[in-house]
Amino acid sequence: MITGNIIKIAGPVIVGNGMKGTQMYEMVKVGNDNLIGEIIELEGDTATIQVYEETAGMKPGEPIESTGGPLSVELGPGIIGSIFDGIQRPLEKIKFLTGDYLQRGVSVPSLDKEKKWTFDPILTAGSEVKGGDILGEVQETSAILQKIMVPPSVEGKLISIASKGDYTVEEEIAEVETSKGIIKIPMMQKWPVRVGRPYKQKLDPDIPLVTGQRAQDTFFPVAKGGTSAMPGPFGSGKTVTQQQLAKWADADIIVYVGCGERGNEMTEVLKEFPKLEDPKTGKPLMDRTVLIANTSNMPVAAREACVYTGITIAEYFRDMGYDVALMADSTSRWAEAMREISGRLEEMPGEEGYPAYLASRLAQFYERAGRITTVGTEDKTSSITVVGAVSPPGGDLSEPVTQNTLRISKVFWALDSSLADKRHFPSIDWLQSYSLYVDSVEDWWKTNTGSDWRVTRDKAMALLQKESELQEIVQLVGPDALPDRERITLETTRMIREDFLQQNAYHEVDTYCAPIKQYEMLKTIISYHENAEAALDRGAASTDIITIPVKDDIGRMKYLPESEFEVKVKEIQADIVKQCSEV
Amino acid sequence: MKIDIKTREYTTVSEVSGPLMIVEGVEGVAYNEIVEIETPAGDNRRGQVLEVKGDLAVVQVFEGTSDLNTSTTKVRFTGQTAKLGVAPDMLGRVFNGTGIPIDGGPEIIPDKELDISGNPMNPSAREFPAEFIETGISTIDGMNTLVRGQKLPIFTGSGLPHNELAAQIARQAKVIGEETEFAVVFAAMGITHEEANYFMRDFERTGALERVTVFMNLADDPAIERIITPKMALTTAEYFAFELNMHVLVILTDLTNYCEALREISAARDEVPGRRGYPGYMYTDLATMYERAGRITGKEGSITQMPILVMPQDDITHPIPDLTGYITEGQIVLSRDLNRKGIYPPVDVLPSLSRLMSGGIGEGQTREDHSGVSDQLYSAYAEGRDLRDLMAVVGEEALTERDRKFLNFAEAFEKRFITQTGDEDRSIQETLDLGWELLSLLPEAELKRVRAEHIPKYHPAYK
Lengths: 583, 463
Description:
Chain A is of the alpha+beta class. Chain A contains 16 helices and 26 strands.
């Protein structure tokens, strides 16, 4: 252990001397209060350290102690359903120790070391094992069976394994004889957050992450293992959209990282999720959710670390064979934390004061997403999907964080404040947004909904495109000047916008829309369009077609519970044909 | 602010520049500690340590650096971070920007000494704010509902009646079915004497002064002092709310002046600037203030924040409103156009927002139809405004019958729903009924945002 002394303090950055022998990114304990810090620069025998807690009151001369290892997270039973801060300290436990406000220098283990979990072995002694192999299972919550794995670097012969029974996370449950000797394995693993956990191979994502949100699923789908960026100015509904994804996405595990955002938003998740049911399993949503909260008023250096903590936890569950979705709200706050630390280090700034390594850090983070084959004897396919919210200053998408994110992410959901002002939610701008996964998820949709899924979707998209052109004409000459056919188009696109794209997160039925319902809804609207055009060809007047009564039913389609929907939608479709032919 | 007697004194000031002073040869100086400065003329000033490097300390001087020299200026390090002595009898008192009474009353005998920076609230200790506050203002209650424990700023421009609106809210805010009134903590940062007097007179006129605590840093007070004024106010508010179980409304005005002071210090320290010269850590700095609003599980009291922010050039994308909007739970935006039309309060509902609205409205809180009415008013008014622009180009004749109805609606909405007088206290029932009355100007088939079953119940046509 190396011990040095503080020589300079400037906010979250301190400099110490006598630190020769310490390593880059090594974790250190700083000052008399033993605050946690991380070495971010070494020069001669001085080290620059970012401190994860408030440094007020600290003096030069106070000691710095190295810990010999990098900043790591503890992985094992006890993660699910918890709320951690940016460096994986359990906030619930801290509350018992220090009360309603966070105090400095609290040392609490991330995982409960006393609690016993029921371990159920799968492998038997004598078998050859590799890193990633599943030794046994622990039913962690009603929804999640946690798989206890051989740590990635271990390979050899399993010489003993614990029998079914209750163990703490630190108790030894297996012994492996490797080329370097016998290794004892407890349920808990430690892993440095800045290093990605290994995998065998990356695969192409071709299964959609079904989120139950019509605008995303139908028009701009994200695949399991894909990446999506969601920039939007304040008030455009980023957080509600993120929370909707965390609630309804069909992933096995959700890691929700609140990075530099509002405290009340985390409280909302903590209060609401235990009450909500997963549409797939019927279990409480909290039983598959991990929360990382580093709110905007918590120390800035820990904000820099929190996305790494989140993705490392996500990788751990991915290695068990699960599909994981990670929501990071907001990556801009993370980038700003980098900027703040970089400024304190007096580094030469890049664009808008952000450090020159902003792009590479963002890329490294998003690249930890993906659909993969896990390490281990048996191949398991699993994925991490990353959805990153971006908060561009002034809603200006040309700023560095948005631009560097767009270079990496494959899906772009552009949230628009003018849509939000009209209470069009989710405020995803259908003309600006894109998804590069439409082709790869097409097969899934065709198999699970209808063979004309792609045609219907593309037709709706083309109509929306046409609408924006027509709107320009209307702005110049007024709606009266449009020919009948164009008026029908505008009427259809109004239905697509209001009756399909708009989705009410607070309505008990509308909050989640199953893929088949999405498909039928859009098909119904397109069928209206086709029938209306046919009626027009027969000589009907556009004003009569626009006022047919079935349109009210179309408008209320989204509020139909799934149980009634199937019958009702057929009636609506039949009514469209009937009423259009009678005009 | 209390100063510990155990001090170390130096006369080794080596540099004075802008609001900063560098002291050499110091020992055992702590980051952020408070220093007392004696000027060559014998005056006392205070400052705070911004950086320590070996035996050098960088100190920001709250009351300005004029008259300081590098030979005889005395600097005493107090060994304490900034603290405020708080007590129940601070209610009804007026303090300056650094917490010293200026109303001629007696000294405060502190019940407790609290660090003014505060500590971050543990997110798992928070209670989600969900109690409706009736302000009596239709645009707020009906469409941007405020709840206890929320932080909802007013974004405004110079010359707009934001002070009138804030005073009206402070006067009228109440929770339905509860007798207790809000305690108000008012922090002025760099506002003029005139503006300050307006608030003081209003508090006196309505007899509210006894439940108000005022911290006053005026335009001619030292700019750097503004850095600590809001922290003083919020520390007091935390004490009232979570130790004395009061419901506290904190009004901070004007945040723009606070941020200017922050920029001044940052520039003096040669820091790498962020957008428009404001420091890169301004988001974090503002967040540590705004996030002090809220509720705590198991505690009676609450802190509701209403910061006022004058947007430079009415520009909502300026860094100050922009960063604020990302932290606060919505915003009330005042509009110059509405003000020119003579509409008070000139609240532009379209860019306004309350993020915590959904938890505070509906059955049991306001009325079951609240969210539907609000959404419908929003989208109808937005459409009416779009059509108004269109009409300006193509003329009214080119519009359809349906479009004209929306135009009329927008007009009526501004004249009857937004407009109210400075002492008109509308109940939420009145606001919602008024909303229905206006919606009845539109064809019933257009009312898609309200629930179908609420139409026969509340629509005037069925009464």
